[in-house]
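A common beginner's mistake is to predict each chain separately and then try to dock the pieces by hand. The better habit, illustrated here, is to supply every component at once so that their relative placement is modeled jointly.
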Amino acid sequence: MARVKGVFSTLAFTVIGIATLALAIMLANSVSKPEDRFTEVKKVDSVKELSNSLQETLARIFNAESNIQITKNSNKVSFIETLPLQTSLDSTLNNFQTFVTDEIKLSPTVNVSTSEITNYLTLNINPYNTTYKHSTSKDSIEILPQNSSQITNAKFEIKIQDIISALTTTNTLATGPLNLEVKITNSSGSQFYTFTKLINLTEDEKVLDIKITSTIDNKTISIITKNKKLIVNASQKQIDINTTLTATDIIDSITLPKNSVDVFIPSLEVQKSGSKDLTDSSLKDPTIDFTLTAYAKEAFEEDNDPTWNPAPELINEDPNPEVFITAQDEDVTPLDYIIFKFNNLLLTNETINSVKLSIKHKDNLGDDGELDLYPEKRVIHCCPLEAGCTPDSLSWIKIANYQISNSWIISPYKLEISECINTTALANNIQIKMIYDPYEPAEIGVTKGYIDIDYVKVDMNK
Amino acid sequence: MSKKAFILTLDAAISVIILLTLLTAANSYTVKIEKETLSNLQLSRTGDDTLKILEKRSILKQSVQESNSNLIKDEIETMDLPKEYKVIIKVKCKNTPELSTGIVPINKQIITSKIVFPVIQNNNLQDYCIARSYIWQE
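With all components supplied together, the output reads:
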């Protein structure tokens, strides 16, 4: 009996001992594991937050510095840029990479890889595995769809600004007509599409528009802007290209290469890489858009007679104005003109999005009652120089012809002149020249009709 | 015989009491540790969120542009954080002087967070910076 009790007691003590030991182990684990767990959760949080902020920063730097304007709408995306692309993105991203690497030395490990961006400015069109990229010299673009059936159409609008200036930089093609070639080639380099046009180096040929709509049935389409005829000087802005791609379904995002930002902790096998949607409005610099209106503060004819200074009548927007300005065609010179100088808007470093000009006028047809059919007799010019233009200077840029009319007309209605007025300095000193010469032929010393102007104003969105 | 049975029963009862006491003590200790972990996590995420709010409200950018750390201080005061939470923000940029809203104590358990942000004005990149938050409980 005593032996049974002894065994029982031994068993009981053993069970209690094991239970106590188990509790001790549980306690020890309880002390260490939560601290480890917090550390792990904290590290995962750090990777996520740091990676997100790096991706957003890269996207915002790209939007600010790339000089590529991207617009996404449902199943279409447009890229607008000027080739050769002039951007400070290379040096900025290299410096940014160095800064981040120097500042974040300890965990987590940060790898900012910018070579694909700086070398090729590669953009991914998701989810179609399609890339929009540049040559290293940034003078051509390539579109590489991995699955051609998903990107159905590519439309290219190529606008060459100031061909004469581009050609004269070569010192060999200063004058005379010539063939301009723009080529689109496929991935193997063979010709896919060629556009040629005989160009006369006259004032009217300064801007060339080429619209190409093409089906992508090959892997690569390249627009080569360097060719035998047009050598583009990299220091000049020459060719505007608007590329619109159409997909079969919704385009989710346009991103930088996904490996651009890689944040990881090797010991925990935690990693986060990726890239933000460049078209996300929250990643664009928030700007306050508002409109300013400038009125002509001063206006005068080419012979200063009459001189309208000041000219409050110019701002009268009465639909049937009784007070207005009359400029007479005195036929003293072949072409008469009025120059309007606008008030200083006191802009500093704002970005100007749009400048729209409107002029309200009517033309008196005079005794002969015949309309002048020569368009060069009714032209609106804009001064592109910050210092202003002298009246007979060749610097004036032709904006458009205006419509002649013997009743009040706002013509041309809301004419966009932001190609001429594109800096705050220019916006602070807008000069517009309006050529008028209602009748033909002119007779020296005889007044032949006139132009009445109610107002000239500029609406500016910045 | 009944005496022996009583002693055995008493022995078992005492064992059970000791066991229960140990279990209770162990459990309360575990719960306390869990609470501390949650508290640290909340503190850490408050630091993350503070940085994100300052960035999204353009306070960090504005502070860098004006070299004025008081803008950050004022904004943090409007956030209505728990009174025992103390936060210091430091901003280091590529081109502009470093900003700090205070001195980080050395005798506290400090939890840090960091984000990267650009300084862009009118679509012109002016600078890029790293903002660090240092948060602790008093």
